[in-house]
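Researcher: Structure for this, please.
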Amino acid sequence: MIRHALILSLLFAVQAHAETPQQILDGLVQEARRAQQGFTASATRGEQFYRARQTGGDAESCATCHTQDAKAHGRHNKTHKDIAPLAPVANKERFTDPAKVEKWFRRNCKEVLGRVCTGPEKADFTAYMLSIK
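Model: Predicted structure, token format:
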């Protein structure tokens, strides 16, 4: 009985930390505004960023692994591991956990850009992902 109650309390605690993609975007916009006063996220800039060819990292662009259609499954260009769709409309898990969002931005930005993404880049990218229908 106690074990069952503990499991239920842990499940509720995990759900309490889940956020909506819009809440994640709002947090990223706040972060971007600390770097760039008056910043407004742009899905258009985010799409350009997603598709742009980069020279700093190992991958040519975000779309190299995630495909041109962010609603589709991708494949990592080196490990060949399957990647679930990036757009929240196709994958309800995306952009719901701030720690995971930050982890993947850190990894993927270094892999594509050869550096950490800026706050405005993360906000624009996320705005684009949320705009995909």
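Researcher: Any notable elements?
Model: The CA atoms of residues 57 and 112 lie 4 Å apart. The chain has one domain: 2-131.
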